[in-house]
Design goal:
Blueprint lengths: L1 E17 L2 E15 L2 E7 L9 H9 L2 H5 L4 H7 L4 H18 L3 H4 L8 E2 L2 E3 L4 H10 L5 E5 L6 H11 L4 E5 L6 H13 L2 E5 L19 E3 L18 E4 L1 H4 L2 H13 L3 E4 L6 H11 L4 E2 L17 E2 L2 E2 L10
Length: 327
């Protein structure tokens, strides 16, 4: 199997800020595999929070060139490469190739109906309460807004501003590990009073034991604390949902296993993404059926997406077209 690996930069429509910093472009790594005239593609987003870089991910993928030439398949990949962005891109490329070889779509390989349409969250960049109120007002027709928190004492004002700007929208918030245990109970009560539906990762991963004993009026979702199904045993008593992202699970193969394990454990599911193109989002659509929250708005934050790309009708995410990732 031949391998091609390359880096692409996609400018964002506007600068996007979370508590960890601001970005103006999405840097992705694209993988193509080819054998017997069939091509498979996948995309990942190296994430500094997990000590990933574009160069590092590309080097990891290049190191597998000989193994692929000798017949490395998707099942063996799970054993030789750890979960993360590099495995995600290659795993999704191998799924794409398998479908091309079979002459069908990946959902058909899995015995599934074509996924979609879905209502996706739309993420507001972190800013001042007034700026976030105005940003929400510009998106007032969207039914589900997601906003970032900073842990700086202004978060309740930010949520109040968004509620004022978009009074009828459902709201979910993402703390990105920025909360403090001593302040969390009061914050959750305030957010509940503002009608927030869900809070993502309010405490740092590895420092969330306090959630076992904490009463919370809003469901709490594990993000940075949950990468693969191996993480679930220590999450069951702390969280209500898990956020499944392909760049964390290391691809669709483990993401499907995590989905099934989470359901068996009685946990709800959110499907999320890094900021990438439609090629990153398309495999994640296969996880969205039955999810309580779908957050696959990455392409909406870009100045331009690849062609063909996913179609968004406001916040309605339509089924992936053939030729984007599979089919």
């Amino acid at each position: 199997m031949d391998l091609r690996v390359y880096h692409e930069s996609w400018p964002l429509a506007t600068a996007f800020t979370i508590s960890r910093g601001t970005k103006t472009q999405a840097d992705v790594v694209v993988v193509e595999v080819e054998r017997d005239g069939h091509i498979g593609r996948g995309e990942c987003v190296p994430y500094p929070r997990y000590e990933e870089t574009v160069d590092g991910v590309m080097a990891t993928l290049e190191s597998l060139r000989q193994a692929l030439a000798q017949g490395l398949d998707r099942v063996a990949l799970q054993q030789i490469l750890s979960a993360g962005a590099a495995r995600n891109a290659l795993d999704c490329a191998l799924w794409s190739w398998e479908a091309a070889r079979a002459g069908c779509r990946v959902h058909e390989l899995l015995g599934m109906d074509a996924p979609g349409p879905f209502t996706t969250a739309y993420t507001l960049s972190l800013a001042t309460p007034t700026q976030m109120r105005d940003a929400a007002a510009e998106q007032v027709e969207r039914p589900l807004l997601k906003l970032k928190l900073a842990g700086d004492g202004l978060d309740t004002d930010r949520v109040a501003g968004v509620r004022s700007g978009a009074p009828n929208a459902r709201i979910i918030v993402d703390a990105n590990e920025g909360g403090q245990e001593a302040e969390l109970g009061d914050l959750l009560s305030s957010l509940a009073g503002l009608g927030v539906d869900l809070v993502e990762q309010p405490l740092p991963a590895g420092q969330d034991l306090a959630l076992q004993q904490m009463e919370h009026p809003i469901p709490i979702c594990a993000d940075e604390s949950c990468h693969t199904s191996d993480d679930l045993p220590q999450l069951i008593d702390r969280y209500d949902l898990v956020n499944i992202k392909l760049d964390k699970t290391g691809g669709l193969t483990e993401a499907l296993a995590l989905r099934d394990a989470a359901r068996s454990a009685g946990l709800g599911m959110m499907v999320g993404c890094m900021v990438g193109t439609s090629l990153s989002m398309a495999p994640a659509l296969l996880l969205a059926t039955g999810a309580q929250v779908v957050d696959l708005d990455g392409p909406l934050l870009l100045a331009a997406d690849r062609t063909p790309g996913l179609s968004y009708q406001q916040s309605q995410l339509m089924p992936a077209p053939a030729g984007l990732w599979d089919g």
